[in-house]
Design brief:
The complex is a heterodimer of chains A (275) and B (313).
Chain A (H helix, E strand, L loop, with lengths): L8 H21 L1 H9 L13 H20 L9 H10 L4 H28 L8 H23 L4 H15 L5 H9 L6 H33 L43 H4 L2
Helix pairs in contact in A: 3-5, 4-5, 5-6, 6-7, 6-9, 7-8
Chain B lengths: L27 H18 L1 H30 L3 H14 L6 H29 L11 E5 L8 E7 L9 E12 L2 E8 L10 E2 L2 E2 L3 E5 L2 E9 L3 E3 L6 E3 L4 E3 L5 E10 L2 E14 L6 E5 L24
Antiparallel strand pairs in B: 1-13, 2-3, 2-8, 3-4, 5-9, 6-8, 7-8, 9-10, 10-11, 12-13, 13-14
Classes of the chains: A mainly alpha (275), B alpha+beta (313).
Amino acid sequence: MATRRRKSKRQQQLEAMVLVPMDWVEERSGLVGATKYFLFRKVPSETNWFHTLGSATLTAFLVQAVTGVILAMYYKPSPDEAYASIQKITNDLTLGWLVRGMHRWGASVFIILLFLHMGRVFLFGAYKYPRELNWLIGAILLATALFEGLTGYLLPWDQTAYWATVVAININANAPIAGPFLGDFLRGGSEIGTETLARFYSLHMLVIPGGLFALIGLHLYLVIRLGVTAPPWSRAAAGYDFVENGPGPVRKGLVEPRPRGHGSMGTPSRTEAGS
Amino acid sequence: MADEIERPGEEAEPEGVAEPHLPGPTIWPFAFAGGIALLLVGLIINWMLAAIGAGIALVFGFLWIREATREVRHPVAPPPPPLRSETAEEEEVEPERYPRSVFLELSTLGLGAAIGGIVTVPALGFMIAPAFVGQGSEEVDLGPLENFPKDQFVTTTFNSKKEEGSVGRRTAFIRNNGVANNVPSFTIISNRCAHLGCPTQPQGLPGSSKKIEASSGEVTITPVASVSGFQCPCHGGAYDSEGNRTAGPPVRSLDRYEFFIKNGNLVLGKPYSVGHVKGTGAKAKIEAYKQADPGQHVDGPEKIFYPPKFWGP
């Protein structure tokens, strides 16, 4: 543009300081472009606070991951030491009460947000074509997260933890045909004991979080690829409102990858648009 | 974000393909759900009702599937035959060619699979197998017989496995039935509820407990007077004094232990599951089964869902 104000030398140097390394990285990896593509996506203009539930859930998961990693530095997964190490984290170690509290209550927050996010997606009809696959991944994520909760519940190794896990494993063991195998697999034997605690610890901090990270990656990939749905009351998504001064016949709202072939994406008459 | 400006490549897609296939409005799912609900209610109330519910669910489920797949089945049905014949012709021409690249591709995949298997199978085996191999119970010495007064239950807590420490603590309710047919008789009932494994409590008056040192470790013995039965605090399972279910969700009687008498000491053997006990005390007829996890049926028609553990002790 001709009207752009000329920058001072100082300003140019400062910009170069940021831009040159970024260009260097971009040229060799394409990561800057990918990040921009990820962060600066188009979303429907009628998004509202309910659309933040997904990222809130992600944040809750990340809080669990970070606090969990730190708790693992102090926790000892053996029957003789587990309870004592939790007591030490809670009562003796500096800020231990806070991090354990975050992990303990954050677990509930994570599950609650999962359900709220699920409810939002359901009520907005965001599970419909072409996002059915993402709904399925979300459902698997929910089950995996609940399993994470189950395995984490045993780790304090107090009476509640022990008996709740006895009951939970026996419920699994009541599945027809597979039950007897499943029960012994979860317990690591015929009775809850040393093996069970170590096994649940491994599942809780390695196996299931790994699965959750992978599933969340897939979930986000599909969100980025398919875009965010407008709320069901959106006039724009229904094809009635159009962006004033927009770049050509781009419909406001509803960013979908393949709405062509409907006729709804075409240029309707101005009278129909009511503007 | 994917819109037409940023993804020109997608415009090549034929129109009409993007049309989402929404099924027409139909009432069948509601009828199907009604059938399922009836089935579930029937499972609790009446088998006939359950059968009717299952029938309704089957019929309307079938109708629903027909309805939902109608659009898919009809237009798609005609085109395949020519397609299939085309590919068949191509394949007929193909077989004489077996190029190097195909061989290399397959051998790379095969080698990769073999290497992957060599690494993965033992690791998975190590994850799963130890849970099933070498299960068993140790004999537990509970100390001299004098500690078990005749015709009275004592709550006995002991270490089932020495190396497990406090995690291996188990509780059994033991009643000395005196001597029957010149053989001492004991009723030894596991406190593990046959519903989901919570600890049941004896319904009686507990006396003062004492601790004795047996070769299996510390054994705590608490006499309980006039035991009328056992109850579980978790979900309300109740049993009579022989361990037969009297109320609540359990599906069988309380488990029991085999016992021996060695050098004047009472010794616990293997635990086993019990279907039902007829009679009491020394004259009890016990339907014994291989030990199953709590909640699993050992008798009745439901037992087909719970095959006995062939890997167990």
